[in-house]
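Justification of computing resources. Each target in the renewal requires a structure prediction run like the one illustrated here; the chain below, 122 residues long, is used simply to show the kind of job we budget for.
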Amino acid sequence: QVHLVESGGGLVQAGGSLRLSCAASGTFFVTRAMGWWRQAPGQQRELVADITRSGSTNYADSVKGRFTISRDNAKNTVSLQMNSLKPEDTAVYSCSADVYDFKRGSGYFELWGQGTLVTVSS
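Resulting structure tokens:
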């Protein structure tokens, strides 16, 4: 019942900016850690950034200083502000979250969004 939906992807020129958003939808649930992953063509999926409920963040070295992750615990949303985009940032970006569903009454499980494509032209 709980699911993640990403938005904000698109085509942008190098040096431009995009803001990705992800919302966890459903009822009677909470999220723990949330993050953004990306997978470029022919590449393995990599963690771009993640954030805890307390606001502690981690970034991949390749995006540090350019990307900023943030979240709203009450709304169960997470965003990724991407500045100074480079062609090598081109990838499908996916939102992830550790979710506890009170309707299920079980432990946390990993939830993934459908992904949103970011294309950066040179």
